[in-house]
Amino acid sequence: MTTFKALVATKGESGTNLAFTDFAEADLMEGDVTVRVTHSTVNYKDGLAVTGKAPVVRRWPMIPGIDFAGRVESSSHPGFKPGDLVVLNGWGTGETHLGAYAQKSRVKGDWLVPLPAGLNPDQAMAIGTAGFTAMLCVLALEKHGLKPADGPVVVTGAAGGVGSVAIALLAKAGWHVIASTGRAEEGDYLKSLGAAEIIDRNELSGPGRPLGKERWIAGVDAVGSHTLANLLSMTRYGGAIAACGLAQGMDLPASVAPFILRGVSLLGVDSVMCPKPRRLEAWARLAADLDRDKLAVITTTIPLESVIETGKAIVEGKVRGRVVVEIG
């Protein structure tokens, strides 16, 4: 029986139990493409899954990990053949479908995206779901008609994965980027990515007024709750905030005032079930627009054995930028 190395999560009486084990290939789930996984990453959502701090995993036992890059081993899907390099993020991987923290994965070919020209597998996972989400936010703001000449853009959770990539992308596009962070020690790091201003997240994280002073025309928010409410209240007339996360909470204690008095828009951004044409667009833009030197500054690389420890650290807000996992 063919086996491979995998991190398996099981549900115990006291919470999530994790163990590295030899997993049987015959026990992989249904799919028309089998991939030899070479790299994965640790996103905030992966941290929630590994620690059990949120009900991310909805099938037990589970191999966590919501995205991977690798090489096709076998395929009955017309779009892929053995040897093709591919990327996957979302579609319930690591939640309802066995995920990425393993040497092999079997998935639906429709979930896969060809590795974009100009990116290698470890760079694709340095981007990962967080960077992909950041690009979706940038695209949402662009399609709303906003441009750098209209005013500043604010990025919350700036030192995290989404925030770091968003800053790099927006700065390269010519935006005046205001980075919001609770880690003052990361100021030089954020400026190296292109942030023009840095503000303390405490300015945004408490209860605010229905309308505040207009400070920015656009924003990328991975935090939610009071922070998102304050971003909306401080957005200039006709501006928009792209919302993609809930690090502070799922609630939105806001009023309708920004929407009906300033014409502000809230743009929801989802990376899990994002349609394939939009995925292809986002990955193509990432390959073309993301500065490789800045991507390297953002990235830390760990072995698969360090995923559990890193998952705990990312939930505690102790991880900067992006983490690549070498599967081996």
CATH homologous superfamily descriptor of the largest domain? Medium-chain alcohol dehydrogenases, catalytic domain
CATH topology of the largest domain: Quinone Oxidoreductase, Chain A, domain 1
What fraction strand? Answer: 25-35%
Distance between the termini: 20 Å
Mean pLDDT: 96
Major sheet characteristics: 7 strands, mixed
Structural class: alpha/beta
Question: What ranges have pLDDT less than 50 throughout 5 or more consecutive residues?
Answer: none
Q: Total strand count, please?
A: 15
Rg result: 20 Å
What is the number of helical segments per DSSP (H or I, 4+ residues)? 9
Order of helices and strands: EEEHEEEEHEHEHEEHEHEHHEHE
CATH architecture of the largest domain: Alpha-Beta Complex
Kindly state the percentage of residues in helix. 25-40%
Oligomer: single chain
Mass-distribution shape: globular
CATH class of the largest domain: Alpha Beta
Number of domains: 2
Q: What layout of secondary structure does this protein have?
A:
Layout: E1 3-12, E2 15-24, E3 33-41, H1 44-51, E4 67-75, E5 85-89, E6 104-107, E7 113-114, H2 121-143, E8 153-155, H3 161-172, E9 177-181, H4 187-193, E10 197-200, E11 216-221, H5 225-233, E12 235-243, H6 257-261, E13 265-268, H7 276-289, H8 292-298, E14 299-303, H9 307-315, E15 322-326
Parallel strand pairs: 8-9, 8-11, 9-10, 11-12, 12-13, 14-15
Antiparallel strand pairs: 1-2, 3-4, 3-6, 3-15, 4-5, 5-7
Helix pairs in contact: 1-9, 2-3, 2-7
